[in-house]
Design brief:
It is built from 1 helix and 4 strands, in the order βαβββ. Helix content is about 15%, strand content about 30%. It is of the alpha+beta class. Strands 1-4-3-2 form a 4-stranded mixed sheet, with no helix packed on it.
């Protein structure tokens, strides 16, 4: 299964602040503040999960991340 080059590996350094701030970084659109729609595709053979985030209101926030399961 080829990996799309638009995906970036998750870095925990990008999450900072208290629990409410971290939830905001993960769940809210950076443009309009609406809750993002998250989609996940698991690949247990290669030990990663592809995450795609998009904003239902403004269409921004098309974030693509790879989460390693190791």
């Amino acid at each position: 299964m080829p990996i799309d080059t638009d995906f970036k590996f998750e870095k925990f350094e990008e999450y900072f602040g208290d629990i409410d701030q971290v939830k905001k970084i993960i769940d809210q659109c950076q443009v309009c503040g609406t809750k993002l729609v998250l989609s996940h595709l698991s690949d247990y053979k290669n030990l990663f999960v592809q995450e795609t985030a998009r904003c239902p209101e403004c269409g921004a926030g098309n974030r693509k991340k790879l989460h390693t399961l190791n």
